[in-house]
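hey m, so remember when u said the tokens were messed up on ur end? i reran from scratch. heres the input so u can diff it against urs
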Amino acid sequence: MTVQQLLSTVSAYELGEWQAYERVHGPVGREYANEALASINDALNLANKLLGCQLSENPVPDPDPYVRPPKVYDEALKAMQESQAKKVDDTQDQGFMTQAEIDAEFESREA
């Protein structure tokens, strides 16, 4: 959309409102749509659960909530940090010196 098309369809007042909104809440992007779709998915899963529970011969497991992107990134970061901490523990178990031990050794040699 060109600036001329934008100005012909949106008033300057409305543009100012959108600028203020983005300053406060961040840029408007796909996050809203992704969250709305995830909520719809959760609602459909719950409806299927409720419909399936009415039949005793067809038990339905509890639905898992749709994983939102920030949660995925948080879990990946946590797994990466745990992996790095394990590598440090493995290094210490193999008899390698820690950084504090290296620094102490270096200072004792300088003295």
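this time it looks ok to me. The chain has a mean pLDDT of 77. if urs says something different then somethings off w ur setup not the seq
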